[in-house]
Specification:
By secondary structure, the protein is an alpha+beta fold. The protein folds into four domains: 177 residues, Up-down Bundle (Multidrug efflux transporter AcrB transmembrane fold), CATH 1.20.1640.10; 106 residues, 2-Layer Sandwich (Alpha-Beta Plaits); 227 residues, Up-down Bundle (Multidrug efflux transporter AcrB transmembrane fold), CATH 1.20.1640; 87 residues, Alpha-Beta Plaits (2-Layer Sandwich), CATH 3.30.70. It is 64% helix and 8% strand. It is built from 24 helices and twelve strands. A four-stranded antiparallel beta sheet has the order 3-4-2-5, with helices on both faces. A four-stranded antiparallel beta sheet has the order 9-10-8-11, with helices on both faces. Strands 1-6 form a two-stranded parallel sheet. A hairpin with a 5-residue loop joins strand 9 and strand 10. The radius of gyration is 30 Å and the shape is elongated.
């Protein structure tokens, strides 16, 4: 029983009963598919706060005491090439469109037009464009079920000389969903074949290359099934599936890659199949477990942020990482046991004693030869220069980060489409804020002289500011809640809109309503986005402290050192900082045009914090794998310089291959059309590439050469801590020549 609690024992047991293990995983996959088909993924496109900021309080009051659940609205834009609203042909088109929409029972709740209301605000200055305000039936989720039917009805009214578009909650969400699905399919179609090619190059074998792909796909499928169950209880964003695919492909392939290669390495040393599986389980699999725990801890930082977006992304990533770790510990040993040396197909390796002895002698003599051997020799011979050059490069790449401007993007960042064209017409001919008005909720007696005076002054100040369109005022039947609503003249996601929200909250409302005994809340999309920005700013230091603190403790326990975790944290922060800087260069500064990236004046507010959590976890993968091999050799030889060389030489090819796979997967997402997915994909790919090359291949060995045995320093007063030992116990440790430049440090 005790052996089952160790990764070595679990691997051996899985290898002894391979068909049972494979069968269990197949059953889980079938159940997951059945779960998705049966109960479905109950996901939402809405982003909600799990705390109670100003915008949420206002929305709750409106729902409880004025209008019920927030209505789902659309704005139909009809623009004529030559005609004006005074022409009979124009009126006929408008009335026909209105009638078609009203005929959609159970879909459209109401629709009005200029001819029925005589509202001049529904007609553009040149009289060629008019608006039809539409309210749909039910909640956003209800309306989305009829999105295609509604949009097709709108488009059916188009005729020669007249353009008809619809912009609003449903059409924008439908556009984002459609493009998101296309981006996801493109990423999978791009990432999987290239990942397979990289695996074939790394392994030099087709069968071995297919095993990590199989594990990743199985982990993703099971994770989506688990997510289907979780979504019935907790509100999850529809982006959770993108997250599962992205992280599942990356870690699923990487984790199995390390274990399969360690097994093949042990076989090349002459170890019998079952013993080689056990050794791989006690070393590489154990490193996978610690890596997975580190990744989960980093991703758990997103669960702290009180928004459904962060919590959904964090939950999806954590689920797929946990499933991938368990699959690596059990399914991979079982598959290896079934395949055995067929992993090397189409090559046929000889594992006879003479061949193995010759290979081991060759390995012994060439520990500092070859590409990675030469890099190790150069870096460790001149560690100060290597550290200095690396720091200059990474710090230089980080500098643009200080120009980072964050915010929220919306329909304006979509590729060319009907909904974007309609949005641009609104921006040109009307107030673009008409689709997302600012809503000021006054909780107090509307018939109070003070409250009425405050409302009048508020409206006067808003009109005088030049930042708002026409204002409307609505009071509930009880007379104790008033809504002042007005469209912004700027896009809801513009910095100017956020400044207007701050102006209302910090200046106008306190000056107008102080002493009236009322509570006033600013709600609406712009207020929601401003609150989201504030929440992210407030929680960023908390998340950083949480992730860095727990990672420090875990690494200290894993490597019995306080120097290793301090260095790991500093190096990962350098990688993340460089990724942030490159992100600003590619998107804000527009240097990403040659890669097909869309220039954006802002970086999505949630992206930097999201990148930190994901990157810190993923970069720790490589750090744990590299250091576990170094420590494994050091525990047997106590020769720091030699151990660093052996560790780097034995893992460099695999780490680089794993990093290239991650870069490929993330690059597939960066190739999509949604700008925030471009930012996420590029940020992840850039950081992983930097981390696996510059940091792991140069900075880590150089710094370890400088510090010598101090790398493994743990104060005596901490010796009581449990010894978790990531590296486990290898069956052997080959002595290797000391690196050029000196002996043991």
């Amino acid at each position: 029983m005790r052996s089952l609690l160790s990764t070595r024992g679990l691997a051996r047991t899985s290898a002894l009963h391979p068909w049972r293990v494979v069968g269990a995983w197949v059953v889980m996959l079938v159940l997951a598919i059945a779960m998705v088909a049966g109960i479905g993924l109950d996901l939402t496109t809405a982003a909600e706060f799990t705390n109670d900021p100003d915008s949420a309080k206002g929305a709750e009051l409106l729902e409880d005491r004025l209008r019920g659940e927030e209505p789902v609205t659309e704005t139909i834009i009809i623009r004529a090439t030559d005609a004006t609203v005074s022409d009979a042909e124009y009126q006929a088109i408008v009335e026909q469109t209105t009638a078609s929409l009203r005929a959609m029972d159970g879909v459209v709740a109401s629709v009005t037009n200029y001819y029925e209301t005589d509202n001049a605000g529904l007609v553009s200055e040149d009289q060629r464009t008019t608006l039809l305000p539409v309210t749909l039936v039910g909640t956003l989720d209800d309306a989305e079920k009829h999105a295609t039917e509604y949009i097709d009805t709108v488009n059916a009214g188009r005729t020669t000389g007249f353009e008809i578009y619809t912009v609003g909650d449903v059409s924008i969400t439908e556009a984002f969903n459609t493009i998101s699905e296309e981006d996801l399919q493109r990423a999978e179609a791009f990432g999987l074949p290239i990942a397979l090619i990289i695996l074939v190059i790394v392994f030099g074998a087709l069968v071995a290359a297919g095993v990590p792909i199989l594990l990743a796909l199985m982990a993703m499928g099971i994770s989506i099934g688990i997510t289907a169950v979780v979504s019935q209880v907790y509100e999850l964003s529809f982006f959770v599936t993108n997250m599962i695919t992205m992280i599942g492909l990356a870690v699923g392939i990487d984790y199995s890659l390390f274990v399969v290669e360690r097994y093949r390495e042990e076989r090349r040393r002459g170890i019998a199949k079952l013993d080689a599986i056990s050794i791989a389980g006690g070393t590489a699999s154990k490193a996978v477990v610690f890596s997975g725990i580190t990744v989960v801890l980093a991703l758990a930082g997103m669960l702290i942020v009180p928004t459904t977006i962060f919590q959904s992304l964090g939950a999806g990533a954590i689920i797929v990482v946990i499933v991938s770790v368990f699959a690596t510990m059990t399914l991979i040993p079982a598959l290896i046991a079934l395949l055995g040396d067929k992993l090397d197909w189409p090559r046929r390796r000889k594992y006879d004693a003479a061949t193995i002895a010759a290979q081991n002698a060759y390995d012994h003599e060439t520990i500092h030869k070859g590409f990675w051997g030469r890099i190790t020799r150069v870096v460790m011979r001149r560690p100060i220069a290597a550290v200095a050059i690396t720091l200059v490069l990474l710090v230089g790449a980080t500098i643009p980060y200080f120009d980072l401007k964050s915010g929220m993007t919306g329909v304006e960042t979509l590729p060319e489409s009907d909904v974007k064209t309609g949005f641009e017409i609104l921006q040109e001919d009307f107030f673009v804020g008409v689709i997302a008005p600012v809503e000021i909720v006054i909780d107090g007696p509307a018939d109070s002289v003070d409250v009425q005076a405050g409302i009048n002054q508020l409206v006067e100040d808003m009109e005088a500011s030049g930042q708002f369109g026409p204002t409307t005022i609505e009071t509930n039947e009880a007379g104790d809640l008033t809504l002042v609503s007005a469209p912004l003249v700027t896009n809801a996601n513009d910095e100017a809109s956020y400044e207007t929200i701050k102006w209302l909250r910090e200046s106008i409302i306190p000056a107008t309503f102080t002493g009236t005994g009322t509570e006033v809340y600013v709600s609406g999309d712009s207020a929601f986005n401003e609150d989201l920005n504030t929440v992210i700013e407030d929680y960023t230091p908390i998340v950083f402290a949480f992730v860095l603190g727990l990672s420090f403790i875990l690494l200290m326990l894993a490597f019995r050192s306080i120097v290793v975790p301090i260095k790991a944290i500093l190096m990962n922060l350098l990688s993340v900082g460089a990724a942030y800087g490159l992100l600003v260069l590619m998107f804000q500064k527009g240097y990403g045009d040659f890669l097909g990236f869309q220039e954006s004046p802002i970086i999505e507010a949630w992206v930097p914090l999201f990148l930190f959590c994901v990157l810190f976890g993923l970069s720790m993968d490589y750090h744990v794998f590299l250091l576990s091999r170094i420590r494994e050799h050091y525990d047997s030889t106590h020769n720091n310089r030699e151990s660093v060389a052996v560790g780097l030489q034995s893992t460099a090819k695999i780490i680089t291959g794993a990093a290239l796979i991650m870069v490929t997967v993330f690059g597939g997402f960066a190739s999509g059309e949604l700008v925030f997915m471009q930012q996420v994909g590029f940020g992840l790919a850039a950081a992983v590439l930097i981390d696996a090359t510059i940091v792991r291949s140069v900075l880590v060995p150089a710094s370890m050469a400088l510090l010598g045995n101090l790398n493994w320093y743990l104060p005596r007063w901490l010796h009581w801590l449990p010894d978790l030992r990531v590296e486990g116990a290898a069956a052997h440790v080959e002595a290797a020549p000391v690196a050029a430049g000196g002996g043991d440090d």
